[in-house]
Amino acid sequence: MQNKMSIQGSWASRWIFILAATGSAVGLGNIWKFPYITGENGGGAFVLVYLVCILFVGIPIMMTEVFIGRRARRNPIGALESLSEESNTSTAWKGIGLIGMLAGVFIFSFYSVVAGWVLQYIQTMATGGLNGATSEQAGAYFNGLLADPQTLLIWHSIFTVMVIVVVAAGVNKGLERATRIMMPALFVLLLVLLGYAMSTDGFAAGWNFMFEFDFSKLSWDAVLVALGHSFFTLSLGMGTIMAYGAYMPKKASVGGTVLAIGALDTIVALIAGLAIFPIIFSNGMDPAAGPGLMFISLPVAFGQMAFGQFFGLLFFILIGIAAWTSAISLMEPTVAFLVEKFGMKRLNATVLLGIVCWAMGITCVGSFNFMSDYTLFGKNAFDFLDFITANIMMPLGGILIALFAGWAVKEQFAKEEIGVSDIAFSAWKISIRFVAPVAVTIVFVYNLL
Ligand code: PHE
Ligand code: NA
Fold it and tell me: Predicted ipTM?
C-alpha cells in the first residue's frame, strides 16, 4: 500500500515538492498580511512570538500533514480515513478533512478579492497612475477601488479563472509547471526588492522595528493573531499540505524537506517586512496602517522615490505571483477529493469548485460596498471569513491532525514516514502530543475569556 502512487500524479523530485509547497506557503500571508499585522501589533515582540509558533507548532504539524498525505497517497479525507483504518481507530477523523475543504472555500473567497486588488495595482503601477501621489490621494484611490463592486468583481473573476486554468491542467502539467516558472521568478523579484529597500535611509529603522522586542506591546490578542498566522502562512490545518504531500516522492525524508519549506516561508515573510518597513519609515508613514499598508503607503512611497514606479510594479507582480501559487493550492484538496471520491473529471471538479469559491467571494467583494451593513459578530463577510479561518478553523484543524497523528495513528507509521533521527522524532512526538495542542488550547481559552 505504501508504495503506490496517487492517481493525480506525483512531483518530479523532492525539490519540486519543496518549491510547490513553498509556492503554497508563500503568498499574501507573507507579503500583505505579515507586515501589516506586525505593524498593528507593535513589531519585534510579535515577530518573536510568531517565530516560536512556527518552530514549535507549525513545523511539527506540517511534518504530520506531509507524512499522512504521502503514506495514503490520496486526498485529505481519503487519507485520514485510510490511516484510521490502518491504525484500527475510528474513521470519524476524516471529518477534519471536511472542515478543511470548507476552510479552503472560505479562504479562497477573500484571498481572491485581495489578489484582485493586486492585479488592479499592477495595472496602476504599469501606467504610473499613482506617481507622485500624496497619502490622501493614494488613500482615496484605494477606498475608491473598494467602493467599486464592479471593478472588484471583474478582478476577482479574472483571478479565479487564472487559478482554475492551472488547477484543471493537473498536478504535472498544471501545478508543477506553474511552480517551475513562477517560483524562480518570485525569488529573483524578492531579492531585487530587498536590495532596493537596503539602499533606502529607512532600513535601520525598519530593522529595529522588526527585531527590537518590546513585550509591553504584547497582548493575548496579539498572541492569537501570531498563532493563527503561523497556520495561515504555512497553509496548515486545512488539507493543502496533506494533498501536496500525497504527490511527494517516496525516497525523500519528510523531516528535512519540511524544515526547508518552513525556513523558506519564514525568510520570505521577514524579507517582505524588511522590504516594506524601511520604505514606510523613510517616508515618515505609520506602520500600523492595517490592511491598507501595502496598498496605500507603499504606492505613495514608491511614487516619491527614484525608479519607484518600476520597483513598485515589480513589487505588485511579485505579490500577484505569490497569491496565484497559493490560491492554486487552496483548490487542490477538494479537487482531488471530487476526482477520487466521485470519479469526476478533473476539469469538471475544478470548474465546479471554482464556481462555488467565486460565488462565495462575491460576499467579500460586497463587504466594502453594497453589503457593508451585513455583519456577523461585528465583522463584515471579508473580515469574518479571514478571522474564522486563520484564527479558528486552521488552528483547530491543525490540532485535530496533531492529536490524530500523536495519539491515534500507529507510531511506527509516523516513524517510517518522517525518517529523522530518534531524538528529532521524540521532539516531533512531544510537540504533536502536548506542546501544539496545549498551546492552541491556552490561546483559545484566553481569548474566549
Ligand atoms: N499560506 C498562504 C499565504 O501565506 C495562504 C494559504 C493558506 C494558502 C491555506 C493555501 C492554504 O498566503
Ligand atoms: Na505564507
Answer: 0.98
